[in-house]
Write a structure and sequence with these properties.
The protein is α+β, with helices and mostly antiparallel strands. It is built from three helices and seven strands; from the N terminus they run E-H-E-E-E-E-E-H-E-H.
Length: 126
């Protein structure tokens, strides 16, 4: 599963409008990349080796689908809650076509810079 291109574009523009135009650590503007795949963040929950999981009880955990932003210059990593950028019932995830998996390896990674995402839509985040 991966983020839909339209969702990545919307998030990129929203983050730029909020002021994320450069890495907050090293200041580089051309090195921020947005991941095409969701990052999962699990808060709480039963221990991983637990065999006695409660059935039908209240879940004491929360699973967050996060948007991954990384600076390729210094490695600073940021996660943003995808729920905050979702509008209505529009799907934000899609299955990845098999032919694209080989292209990802050729490109050297799954990310694209925030500036490139905004430029591909013809909209400026300024």
């Amino acid at each position: 599963m991966r983020w839909r291109q339209s969702f990545i574009t919307e998030v990129s523009l929203a983050l730029q409008q909020l002021g994320l135009r450069a890495c907050p650590i090293c200041g580089s503007a051309d090195t921020l990349g947005i991941g095409r795949f969701p990052a999962f963040w699990l808060d709480g929950g039963p221990p991983l080796d637990s065999d006695d999981l409660p059935l039908g009880g209240d879940d004491d955990y929360h699973l967050t689908f996060a948007i991954r932003i990384e600076c390729t210059a210094c490695g600073h990593l940021m996660l943003f809650n995808a729920e905050k950028y979702r509008t209505g019932d529009e799907p934000i995830l899609e299955r990845e076509p098999v032919e694209e998996e080989s292209q990802l390896q050729e490109w050297g990674g799954p990310g694209q810079s925030l500036a490139d995402r905004a430029m591909s839509t013809g909209v400026s985040g300024k």
